[in-house]
Write a structure and sequence with these properties.
single chain; about 230 residues; two-stranded antiparallel sheet; 9 helices; about 20% strand; EAL domain-containing protein
Amino acid sequence: WQYQTIISTQDETQEIYQLMLQIITESGKELSGSDYLEVASKTGLIMVLDRFTLEHAIRIIRAGEQKNIYSRTLLNQVFSDYQSRDLRTKKLATITKLNLPIGSMIFQFSQNEAVENISILGEIASELKQAKIKVCLSDFDFTKAAWNIARKFNVGWIRLKPFDKHSPILDSDNPDSLQKIIRKAHVLGYKVIVTRVDSAGFAADLWKLDVDYLQGNFIQTPVRDIFSD
């Protein structure tokens, strides 16, 4: 397993851990998500990986509870797991029975996949809400269609498409400036995550713009306080 910390700019106790399954071939090569996700989805392996990831997230949350540490986990999801009503109902019912702390499990879906599955977004959003699972929309490109998807999917977080410190999105005169995006997101009740924050200076600039969460490129072993005795 690998983990990335998503740091809250408002409250250090609200940080999120993104879980990433590391798959290694027999030759020792690490596979990227793009290498295996399509095949895994077509063969049904994705459901096995999803269950494996869920079990690990629950382990982190429960371990935190034992030490009075509130742990939030972010898990990537694919819509192929949700197109069958029976399967998703069974999955979410199982999670609901665990009575996890509200907000401790966040499911992340990509904007592109959400567009392709727009006809069932409302239904899935309602079922996730009943299971007390929050939703994050990744690769958010702040187009009109993106805002519509976020509303329909009842998201709590939007994770912006990656950009660097030289991007025109940081120009306050830009009609689609980051400052305006953040302001609109907050009015709608969404938290904003900016990724690939690779320097303290870049982080400081984003902090001033009232970004809610910063995610860097570094990988770490998670929640040291949780897993240490």
